[in-house]
Amino acid sequence: MPEIPTDPYELLQYNMIRAHQTFKNGYQSILPRLDNPPMDDLTNFLGYCEAWADAIDDHHGAEEIVVFPFLNKKLDFSQEIEAHKIIHAGLDELLATIRAAKADTSLFDAQKLKEMMVKLKEPLFKHLDEEVAHIAPGELKVWEAHELEGLIDTLEKHAKSAGNPFVLVPYMRSHTPPEYKDLWPPMPWIVRKFVVPYVLAVRYSGYWKYSPYAMS
């Protein structure tokens, strides 16, 4: 059974690895379906695609508001900031295309969406991996442990107050492998087993059939 690290020098990277894996899992769920899209359920499929892109956008927003300003005090995260700009040039175009097709399904073009996704993969996956490497425990030793604990607490508070919980929380839970579901992110049993699947996930329940894992 995996365990969540208690060392703050390890925890930031651990959380980032788990979050980044949900984005990779979503990408790998979407791309092959664009070869044979569910035309009889297109609105839900496009909603799922939108949720994936929104989850990345929200994650990057939290990094730019909370994480990078802190890390840039003693490390150079200009490369990550530039990577965000490159990724979001493609992601913003993708989101606009998805939303237009969701509003008017006659505009749906699976081949166009696939080409956009393929083009996005290299800069996105490269960034996700390089960012994780940049916050390895050894890199973070320039801070005291209590400073990193403060950063993690601030990031958790931001995550709870930002974004749409009816999209972001079900997305995260349904892209987290079973072996991590009781551990990450830490939340009370009642939230994991009741609030998420029977309250938060219900509003857009049609989206989550395309997720790789069960909700709880």
How big is the Rg? 18 Å
Q: Residue ranges: pLDDT <50 for 5 or more in a row? A: none
Q: Residue-averaged pLDDT, rounded? A: 96
What structural category characterises the helix and strand content?
mainly alpha
What is the tally of helical segments?
7
Number of strands: 0
Largest sheet geometry: none
Strand content: under 5%
Q: Report the helical percentage.
A: 55-70%
Note the overall shape: globular
The arrangement of helices and strands along the chain is HHHHHHH
State the assembly state of the protein chains: single chain
Written account of the structure:
It is a single chain. The protein has helices spanning 8-33, 42-71, 78-103, 110-134, 145-161, 165-173, 189-200. The radius of gyration is 18 Å and the shape is globular. Helices cover 67% and strands 0% of the residues. With 216 residues, it is an all-alpha fold.
Ordered list of secondary-structure elements with their pairings:
Blueprint: H1 8-33, H2 42-71, H3 78-103, H4 110-134, H5 145-161, H6 165-173, H7 189-200
List key phrases describing it:
single chain, 216 residues, mainly alpha, globular
Quick structural overview:
With 216 residues, the protein is mainly α.
